[in-house]
Design goal:
This protein is mainly α and 192 residues long. The chain has nine helices and no strands.
Length: 192
């Protein structure tokens, strides 16, 4: 049996101090919590296919900061709590967009948002597209589990809490997702 995976917690021993300062309204504490988790939250939301990942990430952290007084726990539990909020907001977004169809973005809107390093943006887009293509055959539950485990770096127990499933169900979903990805990559003949 494998030893449980240790999740890297970046705030560490200072977490209680940072959390209490954030509860008291200290801007530096909000910034520390945000910078610690925002890249992972944004990555999770983006890989899940959010229509507006930046807006949704901001919405998640507005909810996190508004609810700080109700949170009680360790840094690892905080991370799980933040991803529970992200998962719920993503579910809400999906429901919202399923009720009203989106209008395709015009070329002018796309050009307005472009900028920076074109080569890097192109490679990022290709990488993102390939990940989306690879994951397109997975069930929504398999994608949720896989992204929460890999991108959010949550434990099996934390993922089970976020998605409302048992530890065994999370392990089974992860195993099936990885098997499906492995088979798809093998069919594509990708070499490393």
């Amino acid at each position: 049996m494998r030893a449980p995976r240790r999740i890297k917690l970046s705030i560490g021993d200072d977490f209680d101090v940072v959390l209490e300062a954030a509860r008291s309204g200290a801007p530096w504490a909000f910034e520390r919590l945000y910078h610690d988790l925002a890249p992972a939250v944004y990555g999770y939301i983006r890989l899940q296919g959010s229509a507006e990942p930046e807006d949704l990430c901001s919405e998640v952290f507005m909810g996190v900061f508004a609810g700080l007084s109700s949170f009680d726990g360790s840094e690892q539990q905080f991370r799980s709590w933040v991803f529970t909020i992200a998962h719920r907001r993503l579910t809400d977004e999906r429901r919202r967009f399923s009720r009203r169809p989106t209008v395709p973005t015009s070329d002018a809107d796309v050009l307005d948002r472009l900028g920076g390093d074109a080569e890097k943006e192109a490679l990022d887009a290709l990488g993102s597209r390939h990940v989306h293509e690879l994951c397109s055959e997975l069930t929504a539950e398999q994608r949720d589990v896989l992204f929460l485990r890999v991108v959010a770096d949550l434990s099996v127990e934390q993922v089970a809490g976020v998605v409302g499933r048992s530890n065994g169900a999370v392990k089974a979903l992860q195993r099936r997702a990885l098997t499906a990805l492995r088979e798809k990559i093998a069919r594509e003949g990708v070499t490393l």
